[in-house]
Amino acid sequence: MIIILAAATMLTLAIFMAWVLGWANVAFHVDVDPRIEASIEALPGANCGGCGYVGCGEYAEAVVVDEVAVNLCPVGGDACAAALAEILGVEINQSWPSRPVIHCGATQENRLGRNAYKGEQACTAANMVAGVQGCTYGCLGFGDCGAVCKFDAINVIDGLATVDYDKCVGCGACEKICPRHIISMTPFKVSQMLAVTCANNDFGKDVKGVCKVGCIGCKACGRASKAFVFEEGQLIPDLDYDQYNPEEMDDLQVAIHKCPQKRLLMVGNPSDKDIEANADSEAPAIVKPEFETTVDKTEWHG
User: What is the CATH number of domain 34-88?
Assistant: First the structure.
């Protein structure tokens, strides 16, 4: 009898709780805009944070509710932006994929004044210790950028952070983690872009004291092409994205040849057209993504 009574009590409680949950589901139901669910389906689901939101779900909601731009997903690219635009019934402006550029081209053998470092093998830790290396602008080479990359697209080779553009999706994690801010997300109009591979803004004599290949601030590139601009007190050139035209490279090629330190390099993956166009070029040769540059995330740097 006790067992039957206990079973009946449990059954009554179960029925009652089921009724309460059913009532709550109806009473507190919140309609979800079907466009949000459709947007989530259109996004790649990488949850990399490259769009500036915590994950794809939050970005999908922001696109629908807050009407933010539909082309912020670096992983999905143009196809994803087009799908979101179709869901929302909006038009999108032309955009280009962003990829990281590393503003340092000095490998271990090119760095002067490098001292033994016994502390935590991380850039964030080493950056707080004076005298790790002579150049206070250059890549520290401990691989924090590679550690945060979910796509194994950036690795340290001979002490220098190197991007594998075949794997890179442009999530921007490497830019955010670099304590020296020498990685910048750059809009790639074509598969291969010109880059300023130095971030040292000291005078030439000081640069030569800490690096064999650092920019000496001669500004020859600026005299050769209006695409290179120098702000007041700045010795390292910035590439003016509005003036940079990959289809008209004559003046840029002049700048490349005039650079005494060869710090103007092509980065990215060259297309067949790029290879053909540079077949007779002597300096600098087309290089795979190893030498790149980054100075300021608020402006586009070569």
Answer: 1.10.15.40
